[in-house]
Amino acid sequence: MTPDGLQAAQEKMRAGGQHEEAIRAFTRAYERLAEGESAVIPSADIEPAQGVPMLADLPQVDGPKALERVVVIKLNGGLATTMGLQQPKSLVVAHGDLTFLDIIIGQTLALRSRYGVRLPLLLMNSQATREATMDALAGHPELDAGLPLDFMQSMIPKLEAEQMGPVRWPPNPSLEWCPPGHGDVYGALRRSGILARLLEEGYRYAMISNSDNLGARVDPRIAAYVESERIPFLMEVVEGTASERKGGHIAHRCSDGQLILREIAQTPPEDEESFRDFRHWHYYNANSIWLDLEALSGVLERGGGVMELPLIVNHKTVDPRDPDSTPVIQLESAMGAAIESFPGAALLEVPRTRFVPVKTTNDLLVIRSDVYTLRDGMVVEPVTERLGRLPIVDLDREVYGHLDRFDARFPAGPPSLCRAERLVVRGDVSFGAGVTIRGSVELEAPTRLAVGDGSQLSG
Asked: pTM above 0.90?
């Protein structure tokens, strides 16, 4: 790690048209790593959060009044690379014939109509997602609320793991860059001028969530709670379950009592078992936050446009699909980690119906199936009999991991899973129309297998 490496990275960012505040943020992250700042949080330094209020206990409120100063922000910079695609994940079909973006738009317009509020929708795009996403938005002129529909996250160089200078990859120069994590949303709001404009036009609060989580939708009760309690930063959390393997949990820092977020990448190896103890840590980040925009503006102003969030140092290869390509380091931060930048930050426990992230084709099969229904207002929720107990789906990654191969094996759509507890598939199995899964079913196919139309599989 040398000054030359940092300087080369800075020059690359300037040549790539990145904002000076984005370069300053990257510089601070690089310097903190060079200074030996630990990116790990030992379990001994934190203690579990307790006494978290529940959404179910919040009172009903006057919806129009609660939402008149709220804006919706969706993180839309991700490609569906984990599903083998190079397109915005939000443009993948999520349920019926509707994409994630279709449903997000429908939810926003339904809330506007119901409460008679402006409720702008803003997307944080990346260079990889902007063009296709804006093409899709062009078909929805009714979204216009007098504001831009998007703003851009920054891009930073991937660093060659040994020398810590910007990596070069002539076969595909675009792979030399990476986003700095969702924690960039705060600086991106300021750099784009959107933050100042929102405040000028009378908006005070933002709900920020991922575009692949259709359970994350605006609730007037939360907006009213944030305003009445003068909460600068509120994180939605869910009660932990045995499925919590990588999700970040919330804790109090022993040294000062401040709420913090700990991700798996910030956990020392000797504490990995502790990290998985969901009964101990109890509350997990649902990656939906509510933010006082005036408070955010103040934090960023004091930092010169930079919010110093805990480092996440990701060790990868420059081509994530090629394990033999050059090892690199990506300096990232998590959106939820900003909780420690706001004294007075708070948590709110929400039901699992508000936390439905789709990260793999396993998740996609469930949300496309009859486990979920689309209610009035484009609300995507589990059918009544599935509340609180979604089926576990584990498909052979080699066969189903990529979306095109996945779709080819469900040509008539997903099987019925509303009475399923578990579906495990090993090998190459295709499913016909009207297939029903009941209970716990495991299929193993040494050779290609076709499940015929109308089949009922139970176990």
From this structure: yes
